[in-house]
Please model this.
Amino acid sequence: MVPPELEEGLPLEKMKDFSLEELLGMAIKAEIGARKFYESLAERIEIQELKEKIEWLAGEEKKHEELLRKIYANMFPGKEVIFPKEHIGPELQPVARKLEGIQDIIDLIRWAMKAEEIAAQFYAKLEEMVDTEEKKRLMRYLSDMERGHYYNLKAEYELLLDWEMYSQMMHVGP
Model:
């Protein structure tokens, strides 16, 4: 089940329908949403090691936002960031409800993995659209970082699945 806080957006093929300015606005908005999502998720996690990794991801998304804002200011001097209403999805929104039980955390991490994978693809396609080698390298870097986030989350996801399976087995009677 997809929590309502995780809104699916347009497919990546729709990138060609937007200007570079709009795409950078989407990227900044997505980084803000991802940071808020991870901050909200971290507040509700009791497993300290997992909490620290989720907080680290929130910090990484903040760095990405700052980097993208610098690129935007460089490419569009003096302009306010445009946040298009539509976006390439999924976009992680802050989690509005309290998480109940480990299953919710597993579902949210699964969706976070999907969002990180799509973000990596988004930046790879954006790399093709920017005009200088420096900007191309930066988009490649962001794509690689998002892919790294995906693998960090995947490792945690697999550990949680194993832990949940173990936990359920502990309640099985003779």
The longest strand covers residues 6-7. Residues 133-170 form the longest helix (38 residues).
